[in-house]
Write a structure and sequence with these properties.
Elements (H helix, E strand, L loop, with lengths): L3 H11 L7 H13 L3 H14 L4 H13 L3 H14 L3 H18 L2 H13 L6 H13 L3 H14 L4 H13 L3 H14 L4 H11 L1
Helix pairs in contact: 1-2, 2-3, 3-4, 4-5, 4-6, 5-6, 7-8, 8-9, 8-10, 9-10, 10-11, 11-12
């Protein structure tokens, strides 16, 4: 069994010289992470991101590794970059969830939520997306009443918004208002026909 220093040297050779690509660096970074070499994994994955400027998944992994070594600012910067590269609602949702995790781990979630609320309060016309995002942040801080109020503001702008209805249903359930949560799930069954069966099952569970 190789000693740590020797193992790291051998692994680094995998991505040395002409073999130094984003893919090889990311592979070695994953190997380092698997065996607990977090600092080395973070350095390598960051190098990989510098070589590959349009890889969404790579930035998610890099943000995770940077957060693991408490380089939260760089982790958040990578998530901002990933958000720019996101092409679907699912990918954008992953970025938001990961950002909330990093902010929570860094101890900055409360302050960021307060700053976002203050910014939205100054807007002449906050958008549906503004209110949904604020609700997500409040939810992450376990401020369910404030989250619910923000989700309701999003629904005032667009009462058929699937993300807002789903969030409102989840928040009402968390608050113990099962009747209202079921009502939102019924609306989702009509609006989000692709997942109608799932929403109707939720109604049955809530009632």
């Amino acid at each position: 069994q190789k000693q740590p220093a020797e193992a790291l040297r051998v692994w680094r050779e995998i991505a040395a010289g002409p073999r130094r690509t984003a893919e090889s660096l990311a592979s070695v970074a994953r190997l380092c992470s698997k065996f607990g070499y977090r600092a080395e994994a973070a350095d390598l994955i960051r190098e990989a991101c510098e070589l590959s400027t349009d890889d969404f998944a790579l930035r998610l992994t890099a943000a995770e590794y940077l957060s693991a070594v408490q380089n939260f600012d760089k982790s958040l910067a990578l998530l901002m970059d990933a958000e720019r590269l996101a092409e679907t609602e699912e990918e954008r949702d992953v970025v938001i969830r990961n950002r909330l995790d990093v902010l929570r781990e860094s101890g900055k979630l409360q302050a960021e939520t307060a700053a976002m609320a203050a910014r939205i309060a100054t807007l002449a016309e906050a958008t549906e997306q503004d209110w949904i995002l604020l609700a997500r942040y409040y939810e992450a801080t376990e401020a369910i009443d404030e989250a619910t109020a923000a989700a309701d503001r999003a629904l005032r702008i667009n009462e058929r918004s699937i993300p807002a209805l789903a969030l409102a249903a989840r928040l009402r359930e968390a608050a113990g208002d099962y009747a209202k949560s079921a009502e939102y799930s019924r609306q989702l069954a009509i609006t989000d026909r692709r997942s109608a069966t799932t929403h109707l099952k939720n109604v049955a569970t809530l009632e």
